Amino acid sequence: MADESNASDIYRSGEYRVRHPDWHEADAPFKARHIFEMLQRHPFPIATIAEIGCGSGAVLAELSRRLPDVSFFGFDVAPAAIEIARKFESERVHFELRELDQFAGQTFDLAMMIDVFEHVPDYLGFLRQARPLAKRFIFHIPLDLHMQGLWRDAQIDARDGLGHLHYFSEATALRTLEDTGYRVLATQFTAGALQIRSWKRALAAAPRWALFQLSPGLAAKFLGGFSLLVLAEPQREP
Predict the structure, then answer these.
(1) How many other CB atoms sit within 10 Å of the CB of residue 161?
(2) pLDDT, tens digit, 9 for 90 and up, residues 50-77
């Protein structure tokens, strides 16, 4: 995540781990699969991948099994997250407690921010500061701005439960990246809300699933439960 002035103390203090003991490790296979599919559809040479705000490290661990010729580096400002991630370390997978302003010119072929900048108070400055880190970027951005969510104030749940400080629709997420100096190369919706673990949830998710099959964009805009996966590259100085 960001430097001392740009990240909440709940990550450094361990409070976030109390709320989420596995640091969302269970979601890693779903996220890694979509990232891998994005890279398969839009290939480019990759020898090194960094994840900024790596959390549990499980996304990098999953990707390392699919990309055997790549070296992976996970960074986070939360000691608790790096402690969890250590179990995934190997010759090709490394984790380090590091701030965004501590890279000193180090660069990677691909940098990822998976559900990260919505947690950062100065998210615009954070995104601008990250631009020199890599030739390509992958962002996974929760789309908390949707009609159903506005009706029931779901953004408050995202803020209190997940630490989201900023809320995005597809349009505002893409404009944010463009305004901070990224050129969007490809996008796709991911349907986290459709990861069904019980028949009750499957029944409740049926309308969302039906609309998603008809139009992912409309499902994200009206019903929520979706995120946007974006492949981008740094461009002009904004």
Answers:
(1) 10
(2) 999 999 999 999 999 999 999 999 999 9
